[in-house]
Design brief:
The longest helix has 16 residues. α7 packs across α8. With about 300 residues, the chain is an alpha/beta fold. The strands form five sheets. It has a three-stranded parallel beta sheet with strand order 1-2-3. It binds glutamic acid and zinc ion. The site of zinc ion has 5 residues, from loops.
Amino acid sequence: MRCVGRFAPSPTGEMHLGNVLAALLSWLSARQQGGLWRLRIEDLDPQRSRQEYADGLMRDLEWLGLTWDGEVIYQSQRTQVYAHCLNRLASMRDPQTGLQLVYPCTCTRNDILAAQAPHEADGRIVYPGTCRPHSASPDNSDNSSPLLRRAAMRIIVPDVEIEYDDRVYGHQSVNLAAHCGDFILRRSDGVFAYQLAVVIDDAEMGVTEIVRGRDLLLSVAQQHYMRTLLGLAQPAYCHHPLLVNAQGQRLCKRDHALAVSAMRAHYTAQEIIGNLAHAVGLIPEPEPLAPQQLLPYFDWSRIPRNDIMVSE
Ligand code: GLU
Ligand code: ZN
């Protein structure tokens, strides 16, 4: 089967070095296997996404020499597909309890925080199941009533370990009930959740390999679960370390100095690529190289698990 990789940025800010790393590793892995590399703009959230950022991302990718195949997919144009999939999930029942797998939730963030068990101190919110129905009811999956349209839609998760292997971080075992609880498929404002969209889009785009930052390593469990429910094949999972500043904080879109648009004034594309390749251990010394020239050096076993410090 031909490898299909992808880069799936959210156009909520300028392309920065962290995005370049995700794009570069995904591109190298796919191209080294003679595969395709596709681009998807994750502009689900109309409040935060801007077309000018999407345009900038594409300009930066071209400038860096990271070329993609086929048409660019915009999530904002695919809400019909997500709605169809949500209905499909809503027609399913939990095999254990007979409950409908998807249910409306009207909790506010404060309701959930108030019910939060004290041990989730790492900032994660575990949904306590407040709105989960207690007994199997007749099929009422018609969620078009005005009241339910203002509710978020959640999916019941099983209390079992979900197991998968990551190319860099190795074997993972995540219990969704403990990790996040029943999670959101569609927000109360009608915006479809990333977890739903990513699974459908990767399947429809034929993606066989997912490369992205390790901040999404555990969210594989949610995606793995939905792929199983929908009868979709599991792709290969390859998460990479994050770029952090001297304080150990993850680089973010607010660090304008590390935006590609700002770096262009001081570096060539090949310098940026070569420095990054050196920082992740692909080449022994930093030297200017085009992505193509890195192909002989690319090897997942060289990619470290620890985050990588970059100076501004
Ligand atoms: N859109 C996500 C981001 O920019 C990436 C999602 C993914 O690669 O699955 O962080
Ligand atoms: Zn609720």
